[in-house]
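1st attempt posting a full record on here, be nice pls
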Amino acid sequence: MACIAARFREARGVPRTARRGDLSAMPSTLDADLRRADAAAAGGEGKRDYVQQIFSEIAPRYDLLNHVLSLNIDKAWRRQALEALGWRQRPAGRYLDLCAGTLDVGATLVRQTGFTGRVLAADFAEPMLRAGTGKAPRDRLVPVTADALRLPIADGVMDGAIVAFGIRNVAALDVALAEVRRVLVPGARFVILEFSTPRSALVRAGYQFYFHNVLPLVGRLVSGHRTAYTYLPRSVAHFPELEVLAARMTAAGFRDVTFRPLTFGIAALHVGTA
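the predicted structure (as tokens):
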């Protein structure tokens, strides 16, 4: 029971090692962490470093939390995103998994029947890539530590690109979109799978309660990180609306951009052609 109580205190922002005499200093520390999370979610100057740090710190529990907190719906969303990628048109091609995290998307693509190509999985948080080691053969799924704003890839060589729940974490959205467009061959598809805010008032109310209350609490309990799962819903709130993201994809050079909401608008798929 003492252990459970300690974990609950941590989830509320109270470190396990704190003593009664230390309490006066703790709120200011937590407040500073939350202010940093808010600034990063809003696209502040320190966003890149903050995102890299928190994802490196939560990497060991990232997959577990993803599946638990989404009630495993995230797996179905990823499958739909891969279908939208249209890889069957070029099954032996080279594909980019941007903000690849723990390699779930790339590994799922490599395991598809008929897929004989390779996936380059790029992420700037190396511990996330290491956490995905073993999900697929290294000669088919190649992890590379790289920033989405400066991809170490030549122009026009990738046959498709996908990013799942990562594009809102980049420090400069338009730069990242332009980078993806630069590395794609003409006619290749770019698929963005990302959280969105439901437009139905009823669904939005339940979603907001879960996203801003349940998710941060469970996230802190399981990951042990005080602000990572507070940053997540706040970053979604600051992310562009569906139509705005589509317009910015078009401005980056993608054509025939379409989008559709998933699961009552909790997430959305955007697809554009290079």
